[in-house]
Amino acid sequence: MANSKQSIKRARQNSTRYKLKHAQRSMARTAVKSVLSAIEEKKIDEAKIFV
Q1: What is the separation of C-alpha 46 from the centre of its chain, rounded to a whole number of angstroms?
Q2: How many CB atoms lie within 10 A of CB 36?
Q3: Among 8, 44, 47, 51, whose CB has the most other CB atoms within 10 angstroms?
Q4: For residue 32, which of 15, 17, 51, 12 has the smallest C-alpha distance?
Q5: CA pseudo-torsion sign 35, 37, 42, 43
Q6: pLDDT digits over 9-45, tens only?
Q7: Residue 38: how many other CB atoms lie within 10 Å
Q8: Which residues neighbour 2 within 8 Å (Cβ) at sequence distance 6 or greater?
Q9: How far apart are alpha carbons 10 and 18 in whole angstroms?
Q10: Integer Cα distance of 26 and 38 in angstroms
Q11: Given phi > 0 = left and psi -120 to 50 = alpha, else beta, which region is 42?
Q12: Is 34:48 a contact under the CB 8 Å cutoff?
């Protein structure tokens, strides 16, 4: 548990950053998987859409 003002603020900022970064990281992983699966299926046009 945060005790000082600084540690309370850091905890709040870390929570906000985590939520944003988590969503971005998830979207990036999904895009990579989509591109790789399109390449494996020889669908180059679909792969270019995701890039």
Answers
A1: 21
A2: 12
A3: 47
A4: 51
A5: negative
A6: 999 999 999 999 999 999 999 999 988 988 888 888 8
A7: 18
A8: 8, 10, 11
A9: 12
A10: 18
A11: left
A12: no
